[in-house]
Amino acid sequence: MNKVLLLIVLLFVQQGWATDVKPLTDWQVYQLKGQVKKMTVVQTSENGNINREEIEFDKQGYKTLKKVFRNNIGIDSVSAEMKFLNKERYMPYNNNKRWIVMGVEEDVEEDVEEGLTNINKTNEYWFSDGQHVIINMGPTHEVSVKEIYSNEEKLLSQETNISIKWDDSEYNSISKHLFTYDKEGELIRTDIKISVDEVETESYQIFVVQKRDKQGNIILRTVENYMEESSYKESFSYEYYN
Question: What is the model's pTM?
C-alpha cells in the first residue's frame, strides 16, 4: 500500500469513519475578518521574483477559485510581466470532504464532471480532532499535506510529503512546519525542516506585520528567511461583500 493511501486509511480508522465534521471556513483558515469576497496576495522577493495569488470566496466563507501568477516561470526568466501558472476550482463540501479541480488554462471553463486532459483532482478532508488533509495522486506522483489546527483555529503544524517517479529515477521529500504565535494570536515564526532524498536542512522564518486595513486584515507584512538570509514582502488587498 502506498504512503498516501495508508495515510487515508489510518485517518479514517482513527476517526471511526465519521463524516459529520463541519470544516473550518476558508475565512477562518486564512484568519480573515469580515466577509471577504476576493483576496489578492503578492509576494515580492529581493531578487525581483513576484508571485501573485487571487483567491475568491463565496458568501459562506469557502474558497471557490484560486489563480496563481508568476514572473519567474522557467530558468532565468524573471521579467516585469506576470504569467499565468495554474488555477484551482473548489467544489462545495460534502460533509467533511471536497474536490479541488486543478488546471493550467486560464480562460477555459472546465466541465468539472468530464474534466480536461490537463487537469487533475485533489481530495481535501477535515477530521474532528483538527486534522486537515489534502491528497493528490497521479500515475507518477503522490502528494499529501497534513495540517493540525488548534481549538482556537490556529494552524499549529504542517507536513508535506512528495514522491515523484520518472523513468528509473525517484524524488522524495518531506517538509515539516511548526507555527508560533504571540499572545494576541498573531503568527510570528515558522520553524522549517526539509528532507530531500534523506538529506535534511533546517530553517525558520520571522513574520512582521506592518499595516492592516479597517477590518483588521493584514495588508503589508515582511517575511525574513534565516537560512537563505533573504526576505520578501507580502501585500494583501481585499474585496468585501456588501
Answer: 0.85
